[in-house]
Amino acid sequence: MSEPNSTAAPAAFAIQKRRLRLLGLTLDDTIKAFFGGNAVVAIVVLTLITIFLLREGLGFFAQNSQSLRVYRQAGLEYVDFIRAEVDDHTALTRYLSDLRLRQLTDLTEVKKLSLEDANAALTKFDEFADKFSGTVDPLRSMLSDLTEQATAIKTKFIVTGDKKEERRQLLAEGKTAEAAAVQIEETDFAAELKPLVATLPAFKEGNREFGRALLATLDGAPVMPAPELAARMEKLKQLTRDYVAGLPAVEHALETWDYARPIPAWKAVSSFVFGRQWLTASFWQDWYGVIPLFIGSLMVSIVALVLAVPLGVGAAIYINQIASLREQRIIKPCIEFISAIPSVVLGFFGIAVLGQALRALSQVSWLSWMPGFPYSERLNILTAGCLLALIAVPTIFTLAEDALNNVPRAFKEASFALGASRLQTIVKIIVPASLSGIISAVLLGLGRVVGETMVVLLCAGNRIAIPDFTAGLSVVTQPVHTMTGIIAQEMGEVVRGSIHYRALFVVGLVLFALSLLINYVAQGIVRKYRISIG
Amino acid sequence: MVTAAPILMDTPPSASAKSSAGKSPFSLPTVAVPSVSAPGGLAAPAGETLVDISHLDFFYQTSQALHDINLKIEAKKVTAFIGPSGCGKSTLLRCLNRMNDLIDGTRVARGTIKIHGVDIYQPDVDVIELRKRVGMVFQKSNPFPKSIYENITYGLRLQGLNDKAKLDAVVEKSLRGAALWDEVKDRLDSSGLGLSGGQQQRLCIARAIAVEPEVILMDEPCSALDPVATAKVEELIQELRERFTIVIVTHNMQQAARCSDTTAFFYLGKLIEFAATRDIFTNPANAQTEAYVSGRFG
Amino acid sequence: MSAPAVHRFQSQPNAARRSERAAFWLFRAATYLVLACGLGVFGTIFFKGAGTVFKAEAPFINTTFFTDAPESLYIFEFEGKKYEMGDRAFRAFKEKHPAAAKVKSESYVYSAGGIFPCIVGTVLLVVGSMTIALVLGVCAAIYLNEYARDGLFIRFVRLAILNLAGVPSIVFGLFGFGMFVIYFGWNVSLLAGWFTLAFMVLPVVITASEESLKAVPKGFREGSLALGATKWQTIRKNVVPYALPGILTSSILGIARVAGETAPIMFTAAYVVRDKLPWEVEKAGEFLFQGVMALPYHIYVVSSKIPQNDYTERVQYGTAFVFLLVVALIAASSILLRNHLRSRYKW
């Protein structure tokens, strides 16, 4: 044993493994595997979210396709051609009443007439307007008849579907006799539609008569007192002529309409993605178009960001570059504490205080130059946007402050050493160097705002319609509904498995995809423009 | 050698040492209460080769950090690694107790490191056992944010030793061994972070010797210390050489000259010269070594 | 020769300096405007809510508001006097005065009584979901920071965490509804709410825990490993204890979010109204499978489903006030705990 480096040595320097093993794993390996399993949770959750949203949501497209098919087969589509014509006429009538309002203002405010006198002066105009709007009445009554017929066909079809379902359930329960007793009357759409389509010649006749009558009323149009109003009257005349010229197109559409034409599969998707109507629980036809909700979310977010970005980034620059150490120490946690205010409390604040206050502010006379002021809807884009800005500010502030902090001191010192002032250094060196971080901060703020639910549910006004963009900037004083809000509001009331229920899940999918996209872009910007500190 | 073994056998074998304790007179109990008369790692007598590095190639990812290193480190001697920054001396040091394993993408591509003839890069080697026998003191002193007492006993407690009396004995012996006892004996329960820089580094040395390793690796232990503290640590190294094999990496050539027995000069990942310290500093065989030790580059 | 009045480096007012000052004032104004808005919200709710929660005479706190369940408020005139009372009191009153049985009364739902069940429900939801989130999150963070080596898998995990953090809370609500309520058949229950909320705060907990693990110096790990500690021993004794204060700080953020969220519990855990308290269940096993009332949802209900007037305002502001107070208290207690731990471990 005097030779330690002999073959006996390995035993002597006992560093070989001799630990307890289970299934070939040491205790340490097992622990590592345990922790690793936890790390996978994030992936698992993300996958599960995708799976369950798809599981509940994907059925929507099949159901929507079916719903569109029934819409065509039961003749609802046919009737809607006529309805569109009538609605267009209503739009013209609305233009006419707007004209009357303008005239009235002109008479009372410029010509200083009393209200009674002004109304009296407008008698001729009113006669014209009545005649104008009355021309459509025969068509309108025809339309309501057809509406009834089509609804009846649709109801019949739905009842048949219910009965089939009943029989299927009875068969599944083994009650063959009862199943056989269920009377099922297959809907023969061709036969059912016959009386509906048979009205076409009558409609054509009525339509031409309507066109003639409408043009005839135009001749009796009163003379306008002011050139501006006269121009509007001319415009109305032009619009009406165009409208009448478009009438044969409706007839043509009705003639070529075929109930049996198949609905292409992409329609089920495109009617959701590009649909301009979100109309549910209607007696006629439900529409699930995401556009109004999407635009609502977008408008609210834009307003929020317009307010939050200057405030958040400005505050970040102030705290990071300008403020004294004491100010920093007090203000930073305060702003971060704002993010702890639960959104539902902010929503309540909006209903109880801010909506009221903003409306009162809008009615202050010297502020009336502001777009949209004064307004009457207490809950609207502006109210929700202001509150969402308060939610986005802490996010933007914190992330932007981080980005500013990451700018190497050396940049700043070099700039100072060249004789730049503090403002110059901030504007020319610090902000550009941290721009990617600031942009991604803004994007993540956007992500928070788009995904926020309670504030928009409580404060955005919940009117499902695309806001009227012709109003210019004052569009922000209109109420909207949002994607998050609609889920929160309608989820509790829908029948599980119904098309409406699935549509809400698809809206959830859109939100989910949107949040992933925003995240992806934000990360991409950070990665691409990261300053290399070498 | 043979006389030392029975002494070791008298020390109470700890739980983890049981399996190996009886097999051979050379077996090392993992816990051995140090005694000045019979110090711990007695496996190799002074002057005998303890660590045998042969043809070692080492890579960080794709860049080769060490090229064909051949080196024999003798027991109970102080071996100094010198060389300019980035020459691979610290890398080699960290290979000796496989601390490099903790860094992603490192690998030994060729060659062996044998301690007591055991290749420590064999797959069946338990790194934990290896590190118990090859202790390390780091460049930046890193006492744990615990009391001085807990710092010293940390390694022993890990091995399951909880006997208060024994732990007390180890603490005193280790602190005395690290020449720190007189300075801290009244405040063993205060935090190790409350000590001065030099004291912290000696605390780390005391912590390392408490588990009775055979080899102590020191990675520039004095680079963050002032001259007075450095002198104390160097003095300590002289005392420790009686009981431990010490490998020290240093930037300071005077330090290498003062405390080491043999010196290895590295340059660009290659071992340029390895000889007795006196020869390296007075009569280097290699022109690069001469240029470095005389301060002409590096 | 007299000393020159202006030396070379004398600072002089000029346009650049003025514009700099103006710009700084703008930035300052932005900062203080944000603070003012926050203060405005807090102030209004505290000021108005305090009227419900506190009262002028001893014990100065409106105890019934904290200990009673919500009930309808009845307002009526009887024998020339105007009365306001809650549902139960009104019934007792009618028994006492049979003549009052036919009296005409206005009623407002939820406007009387208190919010005790909501407080209980919120506490249960927060405690349960944070326990789940902390266990999962801290373990995941330990893996990511201590064990994982950079690779495709880890990059994938990190990407997932980042993306999870951006998912809107209502989507978590939908997911929880689809998975726990429907697929697992747990119905609207505490358990479904716990998991939904836990998954929602998971990224916050993971990110912040990892950050505090990173803050533990590398020397602690190396020193411990060099002494022959196994990886697990090192983590358990020399890393996690020092990271704990940071992890608890991170949980503040999480708790504030969990307590404040309404959307995820709307379809998974919250009831508009429930007469029984959570512990009044027949079998212990039912405890996890019952829905609860919760403060944030109650605020939603009272602010959107009932009209606004002087009578309903009390419960609206009172609930919001208590809710803010609860969130602040949770945060404050976590901060205290953190400070306590921080003084113990310092490096």
Amount of beta strand of chain A: under 5%
Low-confidence stretches of chain A: 1-11
Radius of gyration of chain A: 34 Å
Low-pLDDT sequence parts of chain C = none
Briefly characterize the structure:
With 534 residues, chain A is mainly alpha-helical. Chain A is built from 23 helices and four strands.
Detail the topology: elements first, then pairings.
The complex is a heterotrimer of chains A (534), B (298) and C (347).
Chain A: H1 9-12, E1 21-22, E2 25-26, H2 27-39, H3 41-57, H4 59-73, H5 76-110, H6 115-121, H7 123-134, H8 137-172, H9 176-181, H10 189-197, H11 200-219, H12 227-256, H13 266-273, E3 278-279, E4 287-288, H14 291-322, H15 325-338, H16 343-362, H17 381-405, H18 409-417, H19 422-433, H20 435-451, H21 454-459, H22 483-490, H23 499-528
Antiparallel strand pairs in A: 1-2, 3-4
Chain B: H1 4-10, H2 18-21, E1 49-60, E2 63-74, E3 78-82, H3 89-96, E4 106-115, E5 118-119, H4 127-133, E6 134-137, H5 148-158, H6 164-177, H7 181-184, H8 197-210, E7 215-219, H9 227-240, E8 245-249, H10 253-259, E9 262-267, E10 270-276, H11 277-282, H12 287-293
Parallel strand pairs in B: 3-8, 3-9, 6-7, 7-8
Antiparallel strand pairs in B: 1-2, 1-4, 4-5, 9-10
Chain C: H1 15-53, H2 63-67, E1 70-78, E2 81-86, H3 87-96, E3 105-113, H4 116-147, H5 152-166, H6 169-183, H7 190-215, H8 218-226, H9 231-260, H10 263-266, H11 295-304, H12 310-344
Antiparallel strand pairs in C: 1-2, 1-3
Description:
The complex is a heterotrimer of chains A (534), B (298) and C (347). Chain A is mostly helical and 534 residues long. In chain A, 72% of the residues lie in helices and 1% in strands. Chain A has helices at 9-12, 27-39, 41-57, 59-73, 76-110, 115-121, 123-134, 137-172, 176-181, 189-197, 200-219, 227-256, 266-273, 291-322, 325-338, 343-362, 381-405, 409-417, 422-433, 435-451, 454-459, 483-490, 499-528, and strands spanning 21-22, 25-26, 278-279, 287-288. In chain A, α5 (76-110) packs antiparallel against α7 (123-134). Chain B has helices at 4-10, 18-21, 89-96, 127-133, 148-158, 164-177, 181-184, 197-210, 227-240, 253-259, 277-282, 287-293; strands at 49-60, 63-74, 78-82, 106-115, 118-119, 134-137, 215-219, 245-249, 262-267, 270-276. Mean pLDDT of chain B is 80; it is low at 1-42. Chain B contains twelve helices and ten strands. In chain B, 35% of the residues lie in helices and 23% in strands. Chain B is globular and about 55 Å long. In chain B, α5 packs across α6, α5 (148-158) runs parallel beside α8 and α8 packs parallel to α9. Chain B is an alpha/beta fold. In chain B, the strands form two sheets. In chain B, strands 6-7-8-3-9-10 form a six-stranded mixed beta sheet, with helices on both faces. Chain C is 66% helix and 7% strand. Chain C is globular, with a radius of gyration of 28 Å. The mean pLDDT of chain C is 83. Chains A and C meet through α2, α3, α14, α15 and α16 of A and α1, α4, α5, α6 and α7 of C.
